[in-house]
Design brief:
InterPro entries: RNaseH-like_sf, RNaseH_domain, RNaseH_sf, RnhA-like_halobact. By secondary structure, the protein is of the alpha+beta class. It is built from 6 helices and 10 strands, in the order E-H-E-E-E-E-H-E-E-E-H-E-H-H-E-H. The protein has 2 domains: 60 residues, TATA-Binding Protein (2-Layer Sandwich); 129 residues, 2-Layer Sandwich (Nucleotidyltransferase, domain 5).
């Protein structure tokens, strides 16, 4: 459960600027509440507490953003199709900004890879990065995003369109295929999410 020490009125302004609706708190101690991407932010004096299944996107809106980020993602499926999860790591020159993993239901490995890309881009966009350099060991996703390979499956085409819509939010972006060992942490986080499920 992330806790951000901050001025709750500035946090409220950031959420409203991002299009997140604010509602009154449920107790005398709660200043306000907000819901976004499956999570809830609750403001108290001097801090905001995030809870829910995916609090990272809310936390990203509340933190200072901008600049360039390196985004690593992975997807994993056991059974292909089978139980699936995604993992992501977002880095800047100051270190790790965000990392995590979450289950996404049942799907194929390739679709899980796309879901990993989509989730990582959503988090990076919520942080307000202007430039993203995306890296993955999924040659299929990288080459489809770059337009080098076709996406014949309708579900894959839909995810490719969604990923391109997210990428257009950044001033500049690149995507590169890297060896598995350079994407090891995102892979670990996806598999840990599956193990914990």
């Amino acid at each position: 459960m992330p806790v951000i020490e901050c001025d709750e009125s500035i946090a409220r302004e950031r959420l409203e600027a991002a299009g997140v609706a604010i509602e009154p708190g449920n107790t005398d101690h709660e200043r306000w509440r907000a819901h976004h991407a499956g999570a809830t932010a609750v403001a108290y004096e001097g801090k905001v507490v995030m809870q829910g299944e995916d609090p990272e996107r809310l936390a990203a809106i509340l933190r200072e953003g901008g600049g360039r980020a390196h985004v690593y993602f992975d997807g994993a499926s056991r059974g292909n199709p089978g139980p699936a999860a995604v993992g992501w790591v977002i880095l800047t020159g100051d270190g790790i900004v965000s990392e995590g993993g979450k289950t996404i239901g049942e799907t194929t490995n390739n679709r899980a890879e796309y879901e990993g890309l989509i989730h990582a881009l959503e988090v990076a966009a919520d942080y307000g990065f202007e430039e993203v350099q995306v890296r993955s060991d999924s040659e299929l996703v990288v080459k489809q995003i770059r337009g080098e390979w076709d996406a014949n499956d309708p579900g894959m085409r839909e995810r490719r369109v969604q990923a391109h819509e997210l990428l257009r939010q950044f001033d500049s972006w690149s995507i590169e295929h890297v060896p598995r060992e350079l994407n090891e942490r995102a892979d670990e986080l996806a598999n840990e999410a599956l193990d914990d499920d």
